[in-house]
Amino acid sequence: MHDQLLNAIDARTDDLVALTADLIRFPTVNPPGEAYRPCAEYVGERLKKRGFGIEYVRGEGSPGDTDRYPRINVVARFDGRSPGPCVHFNSHIDVVEAGEGWSLDPFAGIVKDGRVYGRGACDMKGGLAASIVAVEAFMATYPDFPGSIEISGTVDEESGGFGGVAHLAKLGYFSKPKVDHVIIPEPLNKERICLGHRGVWWAEIETKGEIAHGSMPFLGDNAVRHMGAVLAAFEEELFPALDRKQTKMPVVPEGARRSTMNINSIHGGQTEDFRPGLPSPNVPDWCRLTIDRRFLLEEKIGDVKSEVTSILDRLKRERPKFDYQIRDLMEVQPTMTERDAPVVKAVAQGIMEIFDREPDYVISPGTYDQKHVARIGHLYDCIAYGPGILDLAHRPDEWVGIEDMVQSAKVMAVGLDVLLRGGRGG
Ligand SMILES: [Zn+2]
């Protein structure tokens, strides 16, 4: 049924590989947000040649936005011959730092053994390239299609998406009637549809003390020891309780199918790096801890917070001189698109056509830009679907398989045909 469309994608394999490699060669490392403009313009220039209207939208005033590191997003739109729904493909163009341990240049876009290597290959320049090629093949095969197609390359996903999808969503870019369906080609494996993610609560806890000479700690009050009591209570009560909370959400990997909390950092007392000076002997009068709590659809954010504050309040009652402050840093509700939502069914049909099997439906352990589409744009017909193996993201020698990109481009193209043309192929 879709032979012509699928052949058009096969014929573009070399182009898909070259596009992926080119995207990797922009070192769009975030933080600080390097090379955003040239990367966004590269995508914009390509799509302009295919007849798309191009907009560059800067995330003015968002965290990290400066003239040295402007948060430049690209949004491309093509309106078909007749009215109809709009399908939007959204990819983030930023990547995390390369880090140590690479056996090849992370920003050279090296093609080898059926793979494209580089930082961002799987997360998610391979997905961006696959969606572009899927759209181009679709437009060439069915030039009379109704409705509209949008492709965006957005910034700052790796740091929360504030200058990227959140900024665009506030401006109405991810709401009806402009957009109806959103596909985010994050690397969730080509046979899986990602329906959403767990919730997040980040907070900073501070314990207070009283400064004194280190030789006479009994004269002061040690904030680090107070934090030690917090950590001990977490170990004894909180972590075992979180472990027992199972979810019906199909989170992958399975270890994340319950509540989790990470201790992101702890700081107190004199700086760890006193060189070239000398350490000075004090009783620390403050200690700060940041926590990263991931919660489930079955949990309420209020309960999630009170689990922590009830422990702190108890310590305040029981432990002499104990006092604390807690500050919210970030809060994201869990989100899960319904399995019978149009975009889910359309991409599922693509997976069935290409792989001759039902898709796996999964939930991501961490959040991605879908949160802004749902929370700010109030658009709930949104999934993540794209090539690449999630476990390779953010790791040395990151790669994306060429065959995976081709196949997932086919899935996206069939999904597009279902959403815009009723899936009739031809
Ligand atoms: Zn990503």
UniProtKB/TrEMBL annotation:
Protein name in UniProt = Acetylornithine deacetylase/succinyl-diaminopimelate desuccinylase family protein
Name the InterPro entries for this protein: ArgE/DapE (IPR010182), Bact_exopeptidase_dim_dom (IPR036264), Peptidase_M20 (IPR002933), Peptidase_M20_dimer (IPR011650), Peptidase_M20A (IPR050072)
Every copy of the Peptidase M20 dimerisation domain together lies at 196-318
Requisite cofactors: Co(2+); Zn(2+)
- According to the lineage, what is the superkingdom? Bacteria
Q: Does the keyword S-adenosyl-L-methionine apply?
A: no
Q: Does the keyword Nucleotide-binding apply?
A: no
Alphabetized Gene3D superfamilies for the sequence: 3.30.70.360, Zn peptidases (3.40.630.10)
Q: Which organism is it from?
A: Ollibium composti
The record's family statement is: Belongs to the peptidase M20A family.
Q: Which UniProt keywords apply?
A: Cobalt, Hydrolase, Metal-binding, Zinc
Name of a matching Pfam family: Peptidase_M20
